[in-house]
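User: Can you help me understand a structure? I only have the sequence.
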Amino acid sequence: MFARNTLWVSLLCGAVPLAAQLPEFEPARSSLPFIVRPYKAASVPPIRTENSSRLGDLIRSGNLYLTVQDAIALALENNLQLEVARYGPVLAQWQLERSKAGGALPGVPSGASQFGSVANGQGVAGSQAAAGVTTGFAGVATATTGNATISEIGPIAQTFDPTIQQTSVFGHQTTPQPNVVQSVTPVLISNTHVYTGVYQQGLATGGSVGVNYKDSYLSENAPTDVLNPSSAPTLSITLQQNLLRGFGIAVNTRTIEVSRLNVKAADLNFQTQLVNTVGSVLNLYYLLAADYDDLKSKQEAVNTAERLVENNRIQERLGSIAPLDVVNAEAQLASAENDLVVSWSGLQQQELQLKNFISRKGLAARELARVRVVPLDRIEVPDHDDLPPLAQMVQDALAKRADIASERLGVTSSELSLLGTRNGILPSLQVAATESAAGLAGFPRVVKTRNGGVQTADPYFTGGIGDALGEVLRRNFPTNRISTNFAAPLRNRQAQADYAIDQLQLRQSQITTEKDLNRVLVDVSNYSVAVRQARARYQAASRNRILQQELFDAEQKRFAAGISTPYNVIVQQRDLVAANAAEIAAKVAYSNARIALDQTLGATLEANHVSIDEAVRGQVSRKSTIPTQP
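Assistant: Let's start by predicting it. Here is the structure, written out as tokens:
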């Protein structure tokens, strides 16, 4: 399609070295041991603001010499719009990792609380609590946090990452006793050590398992306490399962599956942006090449007009033509010079656009400030376009187009998300089962009773924390509990509306996808016709330009022989300038149509030898074919 202008290459020699490696942009995970690695934040590199070294390597003597492949490589390495899209797949991978952890979506807060207390029945305060006696003094150190409620549509998945929590509370408490019958002291002084450990694990079925350990140590000044100090450990295992709302692996892993699809969609979206970037740089490059051709044509028109003015002035002095013929020639020269200025201005504007597109710093890049961009490739229009049959092109487009594949993935993601809103219509029913074991051991004391007797602790409870833990492990004091919880909102209008809204939006997405699939046929048809028409238009314009050149040359010869007039030469010159402009415009139209057809067929990357892996890294390994200076 495109031919090399060997004139520029002949000015140079050598080979351009490979561009230097750009810094990485993906977050780097910590290399610390596994135990502490989850608590070390990933290191996210700063943005990359420097251009690749390829740009400087292609600048010689104030000119930036570019083949079309060099322009593509510079765009892949330096274009900021593509750099923004490069973060999309990385973000999708981290979103997938977050989804695998389960739990509420970002923005849905939770509450937490910590407390320290004695075991139920342990010591005076524990006995009072067990008997339902309150003294008006809390005896509990608490810290709570609360947040506004934010709802997530559909059941919230369990937190699949295991959670370990350990709490240690050391307390010293002095409590006046309004009733001294039990404590036999008006002021109860107690020292408590409470150690709590919790292991929590969510299940994909919609349930959770939790293991709780608590050890309460108590030392107090009550003379009536037969075990003082004492330790009271407890160990419990709780299983909870949703049976209606929130039940099922498909419901609770829907966010993970959607995130997996989003990873694929992010790759496809990056590929779509890559195709658009390559298409844009091709259009900018060939428009600049066409502007150079137009500038050359306008310069030739000026040179011809200058020669005609000079010849007419000579003829006027010889008296063979009238002074008006000189004025007409000078007017034609002024018009040609104006056209040259307009062409030069258009070239400069197109050059600025290409510079900005292939540079990270845009026009602020020092190396590009005073550089002229010289495209070495030109548009070549083939005699024939060997396009496959329309049905084959449509089939290829549907199979290769990244945007079509991404749209289909979006419909699939919506269908998966619909599982949650549909399940959210059900009432809530949970069943929970808890198996716990308790122990108690302490230092025995002899306590005198009011009737003169003595009271001491049961020898079975004599000992330390090891004896108490033995009681727990032997399940000497087990407790079993099964509970159910049922909740059903009356009318349930919110859940019904959420499901209906999601279904309607899904139908809209499906219809939009079908419309876009039908549009592929129209686009392929239009652009294939546009390519054929542009080629035919170019062939006609090229023949017309050749004929106009022959007519102009013949008219000049006739004028030199004295059998034509200056006006006829000017008319033929104007027609030749117009024919040149029409031929260049036809070339640009063909180039644009061909680039658009490749984008419609999903063949842009393959046609231009672009590697997606290199585009993702922002580093093109292909060397430039432009020779270097010795």
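Now, to help you interpret it: Residues 117-131+150-156+158-252+441-476 form one domain. Residues 1-21, 109-116, 128-151 have pLDDT under 50 and may be disordered. Let me know which part you'd like to focus on.
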